[in-house]
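To: structure desk
From: M.T.
Subject: fold request, one chain
Message: Could you run this one when you get a chance? Sequence is below, nothing fancy, just the single chain.
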Amino acid sequence: MGRLAELFDPETVAVVGATDREGAVGRAITENLLDGFDGEVVPINPGRDEVLGLECYPDVSSAPPIDLAVLVVPPDIVIDSLRELGEAGTRDVVVITAGFSETGGEGAERERQLREVADEYDLNVVGPNSLGVMSTPTGMNATFGPENALEGSISFMSQSGAFITAVLDWANEQGIGFQDVVSLGNKTVLDETDFVREWGDDPNTDVVIGYLEDVADGQGFLEAAREVTDDTPIVLVKSGRTDAGAQAASSHTGAIAGSERAYEAGLEQAGVLRARSVQELFDYARALAGLPEPESDGVAVVTNAGGPGVLTTDAVGDSTLEMANFTDETIARLAEAMPDEANVYNPIDAIGDADVDRFGEALEIALEDPNVGSAVVVAAPTAVLSYDELAERVIDELEAHDTPVVTCLMGGKRARDAEETLRESGIPNYFDPSRAVSGLDALARFRDIRERTIDEPERFDVDRERAREILARADRSDDNRLGVESMDLLDAYGIPTPQGEIVDDPGRAREVAESIAGDVVMKIVSPDISHKSDIGGVKVGVPDEEVYDAYEDLVARARNYQPDATILGVQVQELLDLERATETIVGMNRDPQFGPLLLFGLGGIFVEILEDTSVRVAPIGEGEAREMVDEIQAAPLLRGARGREPADVEGVVETIQRLSQLVTEFPAILELDVNPLVAGPDGVQAIDLRLTVDTDALEPTDDTEEL
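Reply: Done. Structure tokens follow.
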């Protein structure tokens, strides 16, 4: 167990603010503790001599030694009470009291003071504004909720106390038990990362589940979850999936890769299974808590009803699993064992008069097929089928084959006793076949998470000092943005760029063009004009003799379009063969929780229209960079679809890695777009660049050991 072990296994719990007044939170918590806690309950309240038959102490200093304190005092007393607990040697505290940062400026200042006291005394503080904590092995219910949890192997955290009370009411009815339960509250000291680490070290926690509205430290959570999911699955419901604020971002990457994309990418990289609903959260958790991992993705379906069998088959098709292809031997054995009217292919339809023996034999034969990694038993009630006996037979087959089996015993009261029997052996029963399949799907996905390998990010030899000097130019910009005039930044990090130069007079433009073989591309350079092609600010295939006039025309167009725009000049650049290449985009948007969020996708003018992109939280290694390339729908274009010459995919992968290093080493880069990054058979070239820099945070980090 980790540093929070005593929080969940105290010998003495003090309720600071305990009372016997009807309807008071202090009374509810004291009663809940007295109802089942194995240890000692210590009420503390200067206004009481006795609370609910227990001796009540006036203050912390006069009370016996306290392992865990639950604060239910007014907000203006919390800080002093916390300090008294620190002085007395208590390390674990739950602050039930509200009235902190959720209430405005005064509350935020109070929360800052709480954090300072916790740091001073090295306190583990849950909350404030928390429902409390539970731990079923000791019977501890240090909450003011109306329900205690049943005992089980699922540990549960929630950012909403009301969510906990609702879930426990439902879970108790469903017979679903928990190990530990935590209401995170405002997460001033302890947050989701702390509890993920704690439960990852707890041998009695089989699954970690949670409801989160945000993640306090995205990078820290990602690191912790990656370690924990080597052994323990994490399933989360994350609310707030829209992000209108992303539409205000100044870069393509910022607009496309909003906060929700960051959560989606970060949680996936962390190995977290994300549920879309509370029902799915527990459908996943029930399977993960009690069943072995499947050795393959092949699913066998055994049913006595054709319609539900088809529904189950559809659900498998919608998942990451597949219907198992039975061997000829399996089909022959099923044909011998089943009636002539039965379907011996997958899904196995043992037909409506199937009894327990026929069901059991079909399941046994299916589980012995080498192509079957898991199975679903789907049964409709009939007069010849005993659900209770079928449950026992399913348990026997799972134990004999050590292959995950879930059931869908359709019906109401008839299935309740059988469902409880199955639950005691770790087999979840679902009313809906699609939910049964989702449970097996979670098992297979967690198996893949455990088996994956994560490459360490490569550290390229780059010119960081040159990059810092280029980024410092943003200090001279009104809005801290830089454009193609800073293409040398990419060169400093080894990202190829075409031959060219930015010039501020037409004569120099002609000289640069003559130094480049063939015709050139010319683009207006202005931090105030984002979409150059929309205003005619780009000319392609300009011969040397037309460069002078083209320069004058580009500047005039820009002036007419936006008279107050800052015109830095015109970029004269080598013309690339785009017929043989694919325009892509590689970029970064710095997310408040997870940090640098990398984006790759189809670029050029299509980036905002098609949004064919993939994202990852940096830093990343080669494997994840390659996955980003493979995930986009346009990936076949890069690999040579329909006779196209394959692009330099290795060059794209390396460019993503180099950009990952750049934005990790320079936290001052808030947004960055390389669009387009042209990928052709002969390599990659970054054609255009836009970025936003926080010049106050410009100094590069010296700690590159974690890159």
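Reply (cont.): Residues 243-258, 703-707 have pLDDT under 50 and may be disordered. Let me know if you need anything else for the meeting.
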